[in-house]
Amino acid sequence: MAVKMWAGRTAGATDKLADDFNSSIRFDQRMYREDIEGSMAHAAMLGAKGIIEQSEAEALIDGLGAILADIESGALEINLECEDIHMFVEQVLTERLGDVGKKLHTARSRNDQVALDLRMNLRKETDEVVALIKEVVGALVSVAKDNKQTIMPGYTHLQRAQPITFAHHLLAYCMMLLRDISRFSDMKARMNVSPIGCCALAGTTYDTDRYFEAEKLGFSDICLNSIDGVSDRDFCVEFMNCCSILMMHLSRLSEEIILWSSWEFKFVELSDAYTTGSSIMPQKKNPDMAELIRGKTGRVYGDMIALLTTLKGLPLAYNKDMQEDKESVFDAVDTVKMCLGIAAPMIATMRVIPENMKKAAQEGFINATDLADYLVKKGMPFRSAYKISGTIVAKCISEKLVLETLPIEEYKAFSELFEDDIYNEISLETCVAKRISVGGTSLESAEKQIEFVESELSK
User: Fold this and answer.
1) Same domain, 64 and 119
2) Is 23 a residue of the active site?
3) Half-sphere exposure of 439 (CA within 13 A, CB side)
4) What is the pTM for the complete model shown?
């Protein structure tokens, strides 16, 4: 039976239903490593400052190390009857060391302890998320390198607009995801301050060394206000904000993959490994993984809104409402990692169908702007050139032609400025190659963007 370490002021005899309602060990047990490592640093500080005997500190550290090893080997099973992971670790330590184990909690509270564990956990999760983002970017860049001259329609309003390359389109997502990496990095720097030593809210009467513990645990600084240290969950909200923006990017990409893999587009074909069939329609190949990424985006948004709503009316300092932070945060990080983990191989294994992309580009009259520019370069005002170009497009549609197949005589009927060189000027290859402005869709620009993305990935 789990012992309530806080029994004293009350008998600790809560109703079973209340125990279950109050307990968080079902979800905070995943922080066992952070809890034990934090406690080891705390024990080391207590010994270094003479608050407990050095031999006692060493015994605590050895005992905590043994608990960690036993949990990871399976020799010690976490007792779900304990209130939380902190109580479980302390209870086992006390059972093994006796009165020495009871000295571990000197000069700290569960309030600063849980804040410490959560910061350490999310610091680690941030690194794992960033590594997974880099895998997705790597997959996108690999496909882009193979498609630097694969012409496709670029869209606005989901209407064919201007010719671009598939590489250029995919590189846009690389830029989004690189910003996500930067956001997580910025957030991690603000999160990486230690709350341990803030105690319940007011600090402690012991002569502790908070900087000692912070340095030992890899923090860059300490929380400078003890009330803020135990009540701050900005880092959780900011982490989930980063997750939400990342999921928005993954969702947009997934939406396009869903469109591209449909029969109406057929720009790409997804690997059988990342699609499913229909239970009734044998011809179906459904992009379920992309759809699930798109769907799970709403779930991550919900996690962030849930925590914001929980925090919005809380007075300082710690309140039990804040126990609700972990389920939202853990669900968000697990969902994000799962989506990133499936996105990278789904992208890497999809088959690009260049001929369908080019056919769509030709039928969309997306070189009409270049047709107008041709006349402008020969001296015609742009608005006049725009009108003539639109009229020519209408004629091509009515006669089931494209700009490249309209006879030169027909062009000259609209303007004597047209010469035989019009066909080279409006070829899709020329239209793409001429987009030489920095960040444009030309081959040279795509190569520079790829070089930039790969240099960022190597950091």
Assistant:
1) no
2) no
3) 3
4) 0.92
Beta strands 151-156 and 159-165, pairing class: antiparallel
Structure confidence by residue, pLDDT tens digits, 181-190: 999 999 999 9
Backbone phi and psi for residue 122, each to the nearest 5 degrees, phi listed first: -70, -30
Cis peptide before 317 (omega within 30 of 0): yes
Burial of 407 (0-12, 13-18, 19+ CB in 10 A): exposed
- The strand ranges marked E within 208-348 are 221-222, 268-269
Give the CATH number, domain containing residue 212.
1.20.200.10
- 101 domain-assigned: yes
Is the same domain home to 389 and 328? Answer: no
411 within 8 A of 375, measured Cβ to Cβ: no
Give phi and psi for 112, each to the nearest 5: -80, -25
In a domain? residue 441: yes
Residue 263, H or E segment: none
Shared domain check, 206 and 94:
no
The pLDDT tens digits for 186-239 are 999 999 999 999 999 999 999 999 999 999 999 999 999 999 999 999 999 999
Q: Out of 73, 157, 437, 458, which one is annotated catalytic?
A: 157
What's the domain range around 448? 361-452
Look at residues 315, 314, 268, 320 and name the one whose alpha carbon lies nearest to residue 290: 268
Q: Is 157 a catalytic residue?
A: yes
- Alpha carbon distance 340, 335 (integer Å): 9
The domain tally of the chain equals 3
pLDDT digits (tens, 9 = 90+) for 141-186: 999 999 999 999 999 999 999 999 999 999 999 999 999 999 999 9
